[in-house]
């Protein structure tokens, strides 16, 4: 697994028994395309965003502010 600026590159091996999106979901990643996804987002991050959405008027600003505070050196 390669990591660069918070992004990770992983190789996913698949077989005829499950599609790539199914394998990603099983691994805790949500595919960004229905077939042949090249990117995936952590399901935990999506759950966090959903919680922000329920509790704030502008969840994207809340998320970016929270992430900035968390990763600020």
Could you please describe the fold and organization of this structure?
This protein is α+β, with helices and mostly antiparallel strands. It contains three helices and four strands. The strands form two sheets. Strands 1-2 form a two-stranded antiparallel sheet. The protein is elongated, with a radius of gyration of 15 Å. 4% of the residues are buried. The model has no long low-confidence stretch (mean pLDDT 81).
Q: How would the global form be characterised?
A: elongated
Which strand-content bin applies to the residues?
15-25%
Number of strands: 4
Element-level helix/strand string = EEHEEHH
Average of pLDDT: 81
Computed CA radius of gyration, to the nearest angstrom: 15 Å
Count of alpha/pi helices: 3
Main β-sheet, spatial strand arrangement: 1-2
Low-confidence stretches: none
Give me the secondary-structure category: alpha+beta
Tell me the distance between the termini. Answer: 24 Å
Largest sheet, if any?
2 strands, antiparallel
Helix amount? 40-55%
């Amino acid at each position: 697994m390669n990591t660069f600026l918070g992004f990770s590159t992983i190789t996913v091996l698949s077989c005829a028994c499950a599609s790539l999106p199914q394998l990603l979901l099983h691994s805790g990643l949500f595919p960004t395309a229905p077939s042949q996804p090249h990117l995936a987002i952590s399901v935990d991050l999506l759950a966090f965003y959903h919680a922000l959405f329920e509790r704030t008027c502008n969840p994207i600003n809340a998320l970016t502010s929270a992430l900035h505070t968390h990763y600020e050196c």
